[in-house]
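Thread title: Can someone regenerate the structure for this chain?

I was given the following input by a collaborator and told the matching structure tokens would be attached. They weren't. Posting the sequence so someone can regenerate them.
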Amino acid sequence: MATSAHCPLCQLEAELENSRSRTFPFNCRRCGKFEITEEAAGVPDELRPYLSSATRQASESGRRLKITTTNARDLAESHRRTTVTERLDKLLAVLARKAKSPGTPSVLSLGFDYPLVDAHDERELGAYLGYLQEKGILREVGIPSGVAYLITIDGWRMIEPTVRPGGEPGRCFVASWLDDQMDEPYRTGIDPAVRACGYTPVWMKDIPENKGITDRILSEIRRAEFLVADFTGQRQSVYFEAGFARGLGREVIWCCREDDLSHVHFDTRHLGHVAWKDPDDLRRKLEESIRANIVKPA
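Best answer:
Regenerated them for you:
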């Protein structure tokens, strides 16, 4: 049963779910669903808006971040560092996701949705909306419930390359440590999770290749619609493959076994890894993440 409480990040009234541990699960209209430890609730005020960005964006993609004293500053800084250009791109991507197709207006709340674009507050979000309207990329339209924003055709032409998936539809490349201890997590965790969502996984351990394996990996990543990257074992090759995929504009779902999660590289800790305990846990959580982040609405 949930009770009412003030969100420790933005101070709005939010739902606090019952918890038997010192980690408190919140559901806030502005910050989304997240967990926070008692110690981390005392984060400095200047970090709070950007932690709201981290939790809300993760929540929108189906993940629930856990904020601790160890990761709070890293999470906040990764969103505070984004440039104005990146924030404008995020805003267009948010509006495009809400609209789904040209001609449909997107409803956006300045007071609740500014964390979606890494803005400090609603005034900053309003400034970005005003700029895009001045450039002819957006039009403000009236709706019965208030105001919405319509992306113009020029706007859709700008964002189309970033919202259209690349690669072959339905193909998923799996980057992981190719050690025998990953056989069971792949066979009973990753493989069935990917297939349950309607995609075909490609794992290099299943592909006989004695020479030119690097070229084959790069080719398979180019062909893939998205990647599942598991960092258990902390193999440099997995970091490279995930980075290469992101450079191509592919979506990457980040995974790691819980007992190895503290070893992931500093510059990827904020990306909201699917943390799993055993292969069954991996299958369940990965399927949820794929459905939230990859599967297109019917």
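Residues 84-99 form the longest helix (16 residues).
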